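Sequence, structure tokens quoted for completeness.
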Amino acid sequence: MGHFYNPNIHPYTEWLKRKENFQQYMENKGVKNIVEEDYDLEGFLQNVVHREANRCRYCYNMRLNRAAQVARKGKFDAFTTTLLVSPFQKHDILKEIGDAVGEKYGVPFHYVDFRPGFKKAYMKAKETGHYTQQYCGCIYSEKDRYMPKNKQKGE
């Protein structure tokens, strides 16, 4: 079962690309899935503004809580996240939050460090015509990705 929930993605057109790619992939693989159409960018921003240094922790917590809720409701054996494939994510924080959320909802968090397969998976996605994102997703990560480093924070 796949689950798409990403109210943190900016801009909306990026969210749409990721959602459509997810749906196409799941359809092609014949995998049942849940797509949450709620694009609550305002809610995400309200929770991270003035706390930008902790934005990833908030984002992980928000998304893993939702995944665990879906897993519990669906009586799944466990839940996990595609964030675990990225070498750019904070795995220690993901595991900490995933384990705590799993305990909270009574559904184990399945942690696997998929980072060693990142390059191969990325190349396969490109070869098969799947959309590959260029930044994590939030407005802050978009800035980090595209703004020249010498222009950030008044440098």
Notes: The first helix runs from residue 12 to 29. The mean pLDDT is 93.
